[in-house]
Design goal:
The chain is an alpha/beta fold and 461 residues long. Helix content is 29%, strand content 23%. Helix 8 runs parallel beside helix 9. The longest helix is centred in the middle third of the chain and has 18 residues. Bound molecules: N-(aminocarbonyl)-beta-alanine (URP) and zinc ion (2 copies).
Amino acid sequence: MDSKIVGGKVVTASETFRADVGIKNGRIVQLASRIKDKARQTIEAKGCYILPGAIDVHTHLDMPFGGSMTADDFFTGTRAAAFGGTTCLIDFAIQGKGQSLSEALEAWHAKADGKACFDYGFHLAVTDAREEVIDELDQVVKHGVTSFKVFLAYKGSLMIDDGAFFKILRRAKEVGALTMLHAENGEIIDVLVNEALAAGNTEPIYHALTRPEEVESEATARAISLAEMAGAPLYVVHLSCALALEQVKAAREGGLPIMAETCPQYLLLDIKRYLEPDFEGAKYVMSPPLRDRYNWPYLWRGLADGDLQVVSTDHAPFNFKGQKEMGRDNFAAIPNGAPGIENRVALIFNEGVRKNRISLNKMVDLLSTTPAKIFGLAPRKGSVAIGADADLVVFDPRAEMMITAETNHHNMDYTPYEGFKGKGRVVHVLCNGELIVDGDEFLGQAGQGRFIKRNKFSYVA
Ligand code: URP
Ligand code: ZN
Ligand code: ZN
């Protein structure tokens, strides 16, 4: 045996039990109340939970966007994520206008291969849905990229029209892929933004006021109808409000294969953040925007009841200095996005589990097990089980926790979660059986992560 983790409590999506975990050749080979076999390395986990590594299915590393570039690349992003208990991510490869999908994939491989510290996959965001691009979707699936994203917002850059969206839904279903959706009505946002700027309303709060909840719920409802017409499954990303959740819930109750994620920012931060003085409101400019806090209990209930299946981060980091500042005189020029890749486990543990909004097993389900199932990574990833990759986190629920930009490991000059505190600390992280985080020390290496060819979509809720 290469390694064993002893004395801890294993937590899966359905059970919590005392067990030692044995590891050989990067896989879990034994789960037993006591493993006596000798191992090269023994990791002590007394008083700690042994969790499956969290999986982040929504990140933007090294991404050009809004006239800037996200501040974390695949090395700094995966390193920061690992310190927070994440051991696998799926990033969005974005097709540039005029590009083929294979060119987009090649560009993303050049960013990630040799840099990522743990395993990764790609979704492909289709922004230029020419006929030959639709014809290329099956090649992408053969490459192990089994999910496509479309944007109904960001007019003039990433947005596609309903016809193109419908064609992608239909073809994705035929080739065994899942379509993911950024659900905001870009046409209406465009009208509201132009009106706000013409009236001289340039501050960050107008980012939120020009993207009201209705533009999200309208796009969500429309997309669900189009998915139903196409007979295709649909996954709604970064769902932010109760109004949009109602659309997903109704569709699911009607038996449609509609799935959705939310993110910590929509559970924990509210619209008032845009009013922070000295332009600091720009730190929270993301799309959809932060909402009124009346939405929070609806989203938590959605997670607890299964109407929302995943919590991802939508890590899209732009520094305050030099990046967010680009929009000082015009909120529409503030790059959209915020960091969070390192803080998801800590936030959901404290605000969800410790506040009795969800159970510990549900946390594992939302952060690891169900993302792995929906995105074709299971049974290899997403659980503590014999035969699975040894992507494991030893988590001490008693240790003090406080989030600050200074102690975070991402390549950023701020965190939207500054000062959030509570309990729970990631003590050890293993990726494919190798220890990559040991307390405050990073032992991982650039290029240690492998590109994962994901299985075709087969999730049944
Ligand atoms: O504001 C956001 N969410 N930026 C990242 C791109 C996206 O829409 O996911
Ligand atoms: Zn989006
Ligand atoms: Zn995103």
